[in-house]
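To the team - cobalamin complex, inputs and output below.
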Amino acid sequence: MTGDPLTNLLFPSIQTTDTLKTTLPMDPIIREIYDAILAGSSKVVEAKVPVALAAGLAPKQILEEGMIAAMAEVGRLFEQGEYFVPEMLIAARAMQAGLALLKPRLKEGNVQSAGRVAIGSVLGDLHDIGKNLVAMMLEGAGFEVLDLGTNVTPAKFVATVTEKDVRIIALSALLTTTMTSMKTTIDALAQAGVRGKIKIMVGGAPITEAFARQIGADGYAPDASRAVALAKSLVAA
Ligand code: B12
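Output:
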């Protein structure tokens, strides 16, 4: 059974799939957040996220159905030539504004320190929304997160492992052209003789499990909540 009450009511015996979910009507407040991100209106997002929370909507639902879904639509519009870089940028700003408001609500409660993770978008990549979300969820789950930012060189990752007591390196890439920087980074860590000290997890829209394995990463996760589960399993291994 699914956690979605309407789906449970309509299809009690059906395991929800993402396809089924998207055919259901969107909650009106979530719709407003979705539309505001598409329009790049940070002000409306900042006004509506607290309204959605006050109405009792789950932060995860606001995030996934309102915010992440809107960014996927932005990507589709960009691909079709209807949006250009400036539209992507202001949509991203509106998303970041909403994320900042959700951040305190995405924490798992009182959690023990689970270890230190250094995260960054790899060399050549300036996308940071997904990385920030993964960092936020890891923090919420008790990990200490060192955020190295975007366009991070392999040398910077190596220096971080050498200088800080890091258990996991998390690499993010959103471009097919920067996926190769993940391999360069992993190779640099191996060459520096520190590969065995750490676990490496990778993610980002173009990344797959097969690619992760091919470049010698220890794990891949397709989204932020599964990134947390993966990080927990990597530190336990
Ligand atoms: C917003 C955006 C931008 C913004 C970024 C702003 C910012 N601060 O991040 C700006 C305008 C700067 C931008 C620039 C460009 N972009 Co852009 N962008 C996007 C867009 C619309 C949304 C990305 C996003 O934030 N998604 C929402 C987040 C929540 O999802 P996510 O990043 O995938 O992250 C989730 C998972 O992947 C995973 N994850 C992410 N990182 C990690 C790490 C780990 C360790 C793990 C486990 C999991 C994990 O968890 C996250 C949360 O669930 C995408 C479209 C898309 N569908 O992805 C295009 C997209 C990625 N961009 C694209 C392109 C082409 C560009 C540019 C080259 C455009 C240009 N001509 O200049 C430049 C490149 C700049 C650069 N060097 O990096 C293409 C890439 C095509 C390709 N195959 O390579 C896309 C796919 C658009 C498209 N459909 O064509 N972009």
